[in-house]
TrEMBL record, chains A, B:
Residues 31-50 bind DNA. Keywords: DNA-binding, Repressor, Transcription, Transcription regulation. NCBIfam families: betaine_BetI (TIGR03384), PRK00767.1 (NF001978). Gene3D superfamilies: Tetracycline Repressor, domain 2 (1.10.357.10). The keyword Protein biosynthesis does not apply. The gene is betI. This is HTH-type transcriptional regulator BetI. Repressor involved in the biosynthesis of the osmoprotectant glycine betaine. It represses transcription of the choline transporter BetT and the genes of BetAB involved in the synthesis of glycine betaine. GO terms for biological process: glycine betaine biosynthetic process from choline; negative regulation of DNA-templated transcription. GO terms for molecular function: DNA-binding transcription factor activity; transcription cis-regulatory region binding. Residues 8-68 form the HTH tetR-type domain. PROSITE patterns: HTH_TETR_2. Pathway: Amine and polyamine biosynthesis; betaine biosynthesis via choline pathway [regulation].
Amino acid sequence: MPKLGMEPIRREALVTAAIAEIGAAGSLDVTVSAISKRAGMSSALAHHYFGNKDQIFLAAMRHILAGFAVEVRSRLSMADTPRDRLTALVEASFAQSCFDPEVISAWLNFYVKAHSSPDAMRLLRVYQHRLRSNLIHTLRPIAREPEALADTIAALIDGLYIRAALGAVKTNDPASAILAFTAPHLEDER
Amino acid sequence: MPKLGMEPIRREALVTAAIAEIGAAGSLDVTVSAISKRAGMSSALAHHYFGNKDQIFLAAMRHILAGFAVEVRSRLSMADTPRDRLTALVEASFAQSCFDPEVISAWLNFYVKAHSSPDAMRLLRVYQHRLRSNLIHTLRPIAREPEALADTIAALIDGLYIRAALGAVKTNDPASAILAFTAPHLEDER
DNA sequence: ATGTTTATTGATTGACGCGTCAATTAAAAA
DNA sequence: TTTTTAATTGACGCGTCAATCAATAAACAT
């Protein structure tokens, strides 16, 4: 029963299903069949729209990245002072949407995937560069070494992600932990 | 040409080869054949000694963990003050042996593997718990909240590992970055 | 010598999964 | 109504890979 304009609907369904499957399996060892089944279609259709499995994974990651970008912009727009901007950036990294186990699992797996897939690596670089730029720009007025501090904060975010993915999250709030840890490195406002 | 007592030699060769293969591929998508070939034997022999592929991976990770433990003990034994002990712990995490790209790749992949393999998860918990205990014990005399600080430092170590694995390491020395970042949270010696 | 144990592998099996393709359906266009 | 076009799938070919097994060969024991 072919209705027209199914492509975007199918693509989104597949992307969502892929993220869910990756989350359920905890790895990228997920078959196109399983993804398609969850998305309510045949695997042939998935191949028809995406070409191959890697493209599905990449689309899933792009989807997650886009969601994160929205989260960041939304929070940044409500921040005025550098300190508020820093808080916004860090809290965005641990927003509900990013902290979803499925999303964390996808992140972790795509980190590894980036090792062997130049396309995945490029996507990761986009995220990293954007976060780094945002942090440096925000820190410049209030930190002596904005670049070094930004790199440390970024690594800390990544590290807390891993710990969350491994279920060892008894930490109340990763964001406030980072901010408290960072505070001594910020200059007094004058 | 069966010489006797080959088992330990074969096992070590397979473990080393597995780490090399994982490092070369950047993922766990490595065939038993490839590992066996690199180790200079047939895949049947690998199965003979290890039973299945997962056991090879686990043995490889145990091997890496053991090497890390040696590194830690060695450096701890030469430290007297709490501050020296902290330096020893952090620097051990970024020792040459841990920073080897092959080893980093293995770590990253086994993080993911732990998601679906209880055995791998148990191994990771051993490492995490040991590091956490060491950090807390070391920090107790010089930090107000040893547990929270230990968790943050551990996450920071993990995060810097990822960045190293992704090749974005322009940072001079991760260890000194961590120590500098941690310094303000240590109490004055009295 | 003869038998037992250990080491070793080539060949094989069985399963699985990606990607393709021809065929089908039904909406839209002519 | 006829034709085109988008949507959709079942079946399948092809390759891959983990794991098994029977067979061979050398060391050791008696």
